[in-house]
Amino acid sequence: MKPIHGVFALAIVGTAIPSVSNLGNFASKVTTARAEASRIGDDMTELTLSQQEQAQKNEVAIARYQDGCIPVVSVDQQRYVSLVLNLPVIDSASNQPIPVGSIVCDAHGNTGVITDDDRDPSTPGVTQKMAFTGNKSLVDWRMNQYQGAAYYMPSN
Predict the structure, then answer these.
(1) CA distance linking residue 91 with residue 1, whole number of Å
(2) What is the pTM (predicted TM-score) of this model?
């Protein structure tokens, strides 16, 4: 081997040694970037699924308004109130909870089904299986159509 080749070989080895230590750092950065990309992908999947679920619930809520859900108002019957998950809805005429299976709605686009999942006859059915629609014209139409008794959420 010629001396000049030895110098080039030594130069190549000299520059390669620091590069080997950088490989570990580079691999660590690649692993971190892959983990971040995976997290972002998982977030996007979750958002997509959430958006699909919301679209399905929107269709459910629209059908409930069109099919004649029971609007819920305040105890004094002067204003609309929001449905609350896991609370009963009270009939103002009898002061009793409305029956299990009733479909209820509010003026804000929320709907629910009165269910009795605890199988205890001494406890009233509560609002569950909630769905929301942002279709304000449909919600307003239903609120204007309803001329029945007032049903309200109990106050604490």
Answers:
(1) 102
(2) 0.67
Read off the pLDDT of residues 33-90 as tens digits, 9 standing for 90 and up.
777 777 777 777 777 777 888 899 999 999 999 999 999 987 777 778 899 999 999 8
Q: Residue ranges of the domains in the chain?
A: 1-156
- Which residues lie closer than 8 Å to 91 by C-beta, 6 or more apart? 97, 98, 149, 151
Q: b/e for 85-124, b at 16 or more Cβ within 10 A? A: eebbbbbeeeeebbeeebbbbbbebbbbbbebeeeeeeeb
Longest Cα separation, the chain: 108
Q: What is the DSSP letter of 111?
A: E
Find the helix or strand (DSSP H, E) in which 132 lies: strand 126-132
Amino acid (1-letter code) at residue 139: V
